[in-house]
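Working notes for the structural subgroup meeting. M.R. asked for a predicted model of this chain before we commit to crystallization trials. I am recording the input and output together here so anyone reviewing the notebook later can reproduce the run.

Input as submitted:
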Amino acid sequence: MSDTLAPTLPGGTAPPPEPVFYVAGEHHPQNGTLLGFWVYLMSDCLIFACLFATYGVLGRSYAAGPSGADLFDLPLVAVNTSLLLLSSITYGFAMLEMRRNRIGATQLWLAVTGILGLGFLSLELYEFAHLIHQGAGPQRSAFLSSFFTLVGTHGLHVTFGIVWLVTMMIQVQMHGLIPENRRRLMCLSMFWHFLDLIWVGVFTFVYLMGVLP
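Returned structure, recorded in token form:
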């Protein structure tokens, strides 16, 4: 028995015992981040499903204004689509280099992905500016309101993806390919490929079907 007396609180009462933790080690569940991110992507999928449904209802409400066949520049949209799809491939190259633990090559492919994403956004902003200059802004008809909302929401997601990508490049440069950065790059990979998948739907449902009579 120890010769020292346990400290007492005023009034002669003993202090509460120290808490005992029976679970030692890491409390973060394995693959918990990826599972949580999948849940987020499913919720984002619901948002885009609502926007697609809205466009499906309002896509022919021209209000005596121009239709998609009058406005859409398919060659420009095809180039834009190619940029985004190519960025998905370059991000895949970045993930392959990450698995090989090559920081420089990973950073290079991430930078190429970001440049392609910026090119996609630039063409999309050019398209929006051109439509508004023609008097086909979102307030012109229900068709244009739903079009700008759907395509603009996707563009906003791409913008957030580029900001996230630049942040991850800084993190990799500062801390290397530590497990935390690998996990975050995996989440960004899922997000980026998800945006590509959504854009394929936009290109088919909005642009290709929009030029049909």
